[in-house]
């Protein structure tokens, strides 16, 4: 569904992604792991169009999206749950959810869930209770739910999640894991960038490990859990 | 000074403040959303009043001239944003050069078309009388201008807080990049806001014509006052522009009555005091990450 072929992305003169290639199949949750500075967030930004790759091709459902402005990429059905959540501080919780909401796309797969505000409230009741509060008055975990809800209301086919567990308490991380499991069941394809190795292994169908802007290992979560050497070499676990 | 003259000066100050508000609101929102200091914003005021003058000369009457001038200035703003501004987003120095240069070019074009002697836009006949407002007799037209300013503030409040476009603008001031990543075409929003800001400055120009007269140079005078208002009120908020404009309008008018030679200094003293106490302006937000 989402395919990166020999992607090179730079920040100024720093060569961050150095010929990155991988593919996320429809309906799968893929986890992207790696140490700080491996290029995980740059990968997300390259896909979402926040940083345009200099070489290579990123395609989504067969159509090239690299080089498009980010709003057009989003309208193809790719939604971003960014690192640090990036809740709009001047908007209420309800406005944060509705500001970018879009009708479900005509070309959605049969059986794919159509999200409405009510359904997001059903998934995250706390957001309904506090809908008139400002987005930044929520706790970290609740803000993460808000960022996920905001992305779901664009009715995407594909979810890019950048470190959803960052800065959250273990019990809340567990909750986030359950939410991702729920989302998988609705037919969403997910690319999950994580520092939290155990969360990634708990929810992903397949794991990719990145180092210096390239994929250095891929396999199932079970294989990774069994492979202490890879864990040690690339993740410092 | 008697109470009635004081009341008159205060009303004059309010009317002037409302004219400034109409310009500063657009300037402030454009500043907050697009990070552009549009030094050509006074140009919209200038073009607005001169275009309206020509229509009035052609016999259209004041109100149709007002509407036509607003539409023309909005179109000018839209073209300016689409053709020129789009190339300089994120480049402060280029923006300053471009917009400052444009303000000179337009000032000369206005001089070339309409000449350099001061002109006046006549007060529309329907409002050309005095009203007794209790303490003093006051021109109905200036009351009308104060009313329009207050209506505009109410309209902006409604738009900002109760509509989706208002939410998009607030979110855009917060985090443009995130908004785009959620599928909002922020460029269209930029163009629309630039055009609306231009239209408001044009409105101010036409409404200000009968009060302040019209001459080349008024654009830069009014721009300086508007910039002070934006700094005092805070970037990116029309509320700040509203309170700031009333403050500066009153200070300017009352200052001219009591300390004519110190007026400009008083305005800047206010600005410095606000900056010392609230570096982000009265309604400004903290620096963004």
TrEMBL record, chain A:
Gene3D superfamilies (UniProt xref): P-loop containing nucleotide triphosphate hydrolases
InterPro entries, alphabetized: AAA+_ATPase (IPR003593), ABC_transporter-like_ATP-bd (IPR003439), ABC_transporter-like_CS (IPR017871), BCAA_Transport_ATP-bd_LivF (IPR052156), P-loop_NTPase (IPR027417)
Domain ABC transporter span(s) in chain numbering: 2-237
Record SUPFAM superfamilies: P-loop containing nucleoside triphosphate hydrolases (SSF52540)
Single Gene Ontology MF annotation: ATP hydrolysis activity
Keywords noted in UniProt: Amino-acid transport, ATP-binding, Nucleotide-binding, Transport
Family: Belongs to the ABC transporter superfamily.
Official protein name in the record: Branched-chain amino acid transport system ATP-binding protein
TrEMBL record, chain B:
GO biological process per UniProt: amino acid transport
Residue spans crossing the bilayer: 6-29, 36-56, 62-84, 96-114, 140-159, 179-202, 222-250, 257-277
Bilayer topology term: Multi-pass membrane protein
An MF annotation (GO) of this entry: transmembrane transporter activity
Keyword Transmembrane helix belongs to the record: yes
Subcellular location, principal: membrane
A GO CC annotation given for this chain: plasma membrane
Cell compartments where the protein resides: Cell membrane
PANTHER family per the UniProt record, alphabetical: ABC TRANSPORTER ATP-BINDING PROTEIN, BRANCHED-CHAIN AMINO ACID TRANSPORT SYSTEM PERMEASE PROTEIN LIVH
Family the UniProt entry places it in: Belongs to the binding-protein-dependent transport system permease family. LivHM subfamily.
Protein name: Branched-chain amino acid transport system permease protein
Source species of the chain: Brevibacillus fulvus
């Amino acid at each position: 569904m989402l395919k990166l072929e020999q992607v090179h992305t730079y920040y100024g003169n720093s060569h961050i992604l150095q010929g990155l290639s991988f593919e996320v199949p429809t309906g799968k949750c893929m986890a992207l792991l790696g140490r700080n500075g491996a290029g995980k967030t740059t990968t997300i930004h390259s896909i979402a169009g926040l940083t345009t790759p200099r070489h290579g091709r990123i395609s989504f459902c067969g159509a090239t999206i690299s080089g498009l402005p980010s709003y057009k990429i989003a309208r193809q059905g790719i939604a971003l749950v960014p690192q640090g959540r990036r809740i709009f501080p001047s908007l209420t919780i309800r406005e944060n959810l509705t500001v970018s909401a879009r009708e479900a796309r005509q070309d959605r797969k049969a059986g794919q869930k159509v999200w409405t505000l009510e359904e997001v409230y059903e998934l995250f009741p706390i957001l309904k209770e506090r809908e008139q509060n400002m987005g930044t008055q929520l706790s970290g975990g609740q803000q993460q739910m808000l960022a996920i809800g905001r992305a779901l209301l664009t009715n995407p086919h594909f979810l890019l999640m950048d470190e959803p567990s960052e800065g959250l308490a273990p019990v809340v991380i567990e909750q986030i894991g359950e939410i991702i499991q729920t989302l998988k069941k609705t037919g969403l394809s997910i690319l999950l960038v994580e520092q939290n190795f155990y969360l990634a292994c708990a929810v992903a169908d397949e794991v990719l490990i990145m180092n210096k802007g390239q994929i250095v290992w891929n396999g199932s979560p079970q294989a990774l859990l069994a492979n202490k050497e890879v864990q040690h070499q690339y993740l410092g676990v | 000074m008697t109470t009635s003259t004081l009341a008159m000066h205060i009303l004059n100050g309010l009317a002037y403040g409302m004219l400034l508000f109409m310009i500063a609101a657009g300037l402030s929102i454009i500043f907050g959303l697009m990070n552009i200091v549009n030094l050509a914003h006074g140009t919209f005021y200038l073009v607005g009043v001169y275009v309206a003058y020509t229509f009035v000369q052609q016999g259209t009457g004041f109100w149709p001239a007002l509407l036509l001038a607003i539409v023309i200035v909005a179109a000018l703003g839209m073209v300016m944003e689409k053709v020129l501004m789009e190339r300089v987003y994120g480049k402060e120095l280029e923006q300053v050069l471009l917009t400052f240069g444009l303000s000179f070019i337009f000032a000369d074009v206005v001089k070339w078309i309409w000449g350099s002697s001061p002109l006046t836009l006549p007060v529309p006949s329907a409002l050309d009388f005095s009203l007794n407002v209790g303490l003093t007799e006051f021109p109905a037209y200036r009351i009308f201008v104060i009313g329009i300013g207050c209506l505009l503030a109410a309209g902006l409040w409604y738009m900002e807080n109760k509509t989706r476009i208002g939410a998009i603008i607030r979110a855009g001031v917060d985090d443009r990049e995130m908004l785009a990543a959620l599928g909002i075409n922020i460029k269209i929003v930029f163009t629309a806001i630039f055009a609306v800001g231009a239209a408001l400055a044009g409105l101010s120009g036409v409404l200000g014509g009968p009060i302040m007269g019209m001459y080349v140079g008024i654009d830069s005078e009014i721009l300086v006052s508007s910039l002070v208002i934006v700094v005092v009120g805070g970037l990116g908020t029309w509320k700040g522009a509203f309170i700031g404009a009333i403050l500066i309008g009153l200070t300017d008018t009352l200052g001219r009555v009591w300390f004519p030679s110190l007026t400009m200094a008083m305005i800047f003293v206010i600005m410095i005091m606000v900056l010392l106490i609230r570096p982000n302006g009265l309604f400004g937000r903290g620096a963004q990450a």
